[in-house]
Amino acid sequence: MLLLLLLLLLLRLLLLLLLLLLRLLLRRLLLLLLLLLQLLLLLLLLLLLLLLQLLLLLLLLLLLLLLLLLLLLLLLLLLLLLLLLLLLLLLLLLLLLLLLLLLLLLLLLLPLLLLLLLLLLLLLLLLPPPPPPPPPPPPPLILPCLLLLLLLSLPLLLLFLLLLLLLLLLLLLLLLLLLLLLLLLLLLL
């Protein structure tokens, strides 16, 4: 009987020990589970942060691409404007060249016209006088005619000088436009 009692006591003690061990194990398991949950949450947070960073990087790249496209468009517009300016300058140069050619023609024709006018006046002076009337004719007025001829040719000479001055001014303007064209071409290159 005593043995049985002892055995029972031992069994009870063993059971108590087992229960204690189980409790300890359960507590540790719970702690481990909590730690694992915390680690998982941290990993999830890290993944979310990484995703947000990737999204931000993508947005920044898109913004950079848009800025680059805008810069390219602006450059193209500037190039087009410069080309238009060049075309306008070329047209102006052509017009100035035409004006210069016309002025040269006028300058070449004016002396010829003056010569023709002088020749006509000289011919008129050298023509024989009409048949004299009964009274004796007065002597031919050569000097006054020559003076009149000179007075008539003075406006033409002044016009000739003015055309020369205009031609010089147009040449200067043409040179300036050529310099501007060269500068624009250098800027484009």
UniProtKB/TrEMBL annotation:
> What keywords are annotated for this sequence in UniProt?
Membrane, Transmembrane, Transmembrane helix
Q: Which PROSITE patterns match?
A: ABC_TM1 (PS50928)
> Which intervals hold domain ABC transmembrane type-1?
69-189
Which InterPro entries does the annotation name?
Answer: MetI-like
In what way does this protein cross or attach to the membrane? Answer: Multi-pass membrane protein
Q: Which GO terms describe its cellular component?
A: membrane
Q: Where are the transmembrane segments?
A: 37-63, 70-96, 102-127, 139-158, 164-188
Its annotated compartments are:
Membrane
One GO term under biological process is: transmembrane transport
* Protein name (database record): ABC transmembrane type-1 domain-containing protein
Q: Which species is this record about? A: Dreissena polymorpha
